[in-house]
Amino acid sequence: MITLRKITLENRRSIFNLEVSEEQRQYVASNLSSVASCYVLATNGGSPFPLAIYADEQPVGFVMITYGITGYDLPVIADNSYCILRLMIDKQYQSMGYGREALKKILEFIRTFPAGPARYCWIPYSPDNLAAKKLYESFGFHENGEVCHDELITVLEL
To answer: The N-acetyltransferase domain covers which part of the protein (predicted)?
Structure first.
């Protein structure tokens, strides 16, 4: 069973040590860098949610969700919307359905509106990351025509 959990003093190292495969590293920052970005966002008016992804009691991935500001140039859709800015499953746990199950849990969490109301959730992704595109489309995300930092913006109405 997939669950989302806070990053704690006890689990932080295991989350920081999770990695994607070599060919995927171009698509996602390290989890340590992402957690540091969350700290900077939180101390500058943002609402980040860095969460560990667990399969039963085993940490298998990481997600960084933001609301409103992300610290980057923003697409038009970003105002009062949630963003799944980072999502990764460790290389040894890929192709086991964890990414799909995690995205279900992430969307359930977002739909509780933990930082405020929103109409949309958006995800930036590299145009050549076809696995991500396929996953997002299977949940109803659609590209809205915007590009930020050479990444396509895909949007889901909540």
So the answer is: 2-158
